[in-house]
Please model this.
Amino acid sequence: MSEKKYQIFISSTFSDLEDAREKVSKVILGLHHFPIGMEMFSAGDIEQWEVIQDTINVSDYYVLIVGQRYGSLASDGVSYTEKEYDYAKAKGIPILAFIQDQDIPTAPRDRESEPERVERLRLFIAKAKSNKMCDFWKTYDELTTKVAIALPKNFARSPRQGWSRGGNFSSEVMEELASLSKENRVLKDELEIFRRRERLLPELFVMVGDEGEVALEIKVELSECLPAQELPRKVQWDELSDFIRSYVKRKDADAYNIKLPTLEEFESYKAAYVRYRYERENACFLSLEVFNRGQCKANDVSVEICFPGFVEVYELDEWEGRKEPEIDIPRSLESLAQKRCEESRSGFMFGDFSGGLDIVGSDLPIIQKNISPYSDSKFSIADRVARLQLKSLLHKRNFSLGDKIVVVPMNRNSGEVVIKIICEEFSEELVQKVAIKIN
Model:
């Protein structure tokens, strides 16, 4: 006979299966184990379900007996028997289900008559059938026999903690307890080290623009950004005025038509110009500042600022290096004729003043860029993500990048800017979120 004793929870409806429960309890006692069930609970007890849960928690196995009644309902409309089954399954307790043949005759009081309860019982039986250990019975003798056979098999297949008489511990158990005690002391020491480190962690905070919200504004719509210049149409020699034909030749008109951009080239220029002008008019310049409010230095600080898809984001140097789109449209024949007319009257050829003035470089002021005290910092922007890397940031100090982030709202929307911060001292990434709104 095994020295380990198991507690076995018996679950069923009560009034119709009282005799079945008693017989199964005797079988369990005959196997030298402990049966336990709802007989010990007061039906009117407000804390009944809490007591049932506590009892299932300390049970080693769960025996379910299903008859032809669904049983009394808890406050949530589910029977206590089904709630007990679901709870035991969720706790991973081995379940042995014994389902009565639904076709055998029973007294009317032992069978459900309401259609809703009949359906609930059918669904519960289907759930219990899906259990690995499930069997069926017609008589009490058949039930007790199957329980007596199934339990020892489960004890061998799925051994549980059970109960043992105090003082009967083997040398192996004593050695394991000593080992666990030593491991517990080591873990406590490590935990204390981690706690001390936690108290000395850097406390990093990133501020983008105004703290708490990034507010943008669309000042100029796309429709207001069209270029003033339109594509001239090709000239027809016969349609030119007598004044123009007096000072220009047919070859001048042909050269003018050849130099005119195509419609596709002009539309491409217009789209680029509209985008350039729109972004210039609606750009917002955001500052970036990183604070270390903690008690120790932060090393290898990495910050990622992820902007939503309804804005465009540029780095300031890239933004300032962008040039306004241009297109080469030749001088009109009328202005050429006027120029030649003036030259002929004065007797002096003015020539072409398309060149620029020479500027003496030595007269220009020398511009020096501000040198950051954090010369080892790296900053870049790609795909709406701004990335900043700092080799270190002293405690109670901050790093300011200035207005280096240029944000352009592309449509009226609202969302969040997600800021991810990590450093050598952090075990996981720190995430901040800042609201962004376009008026």
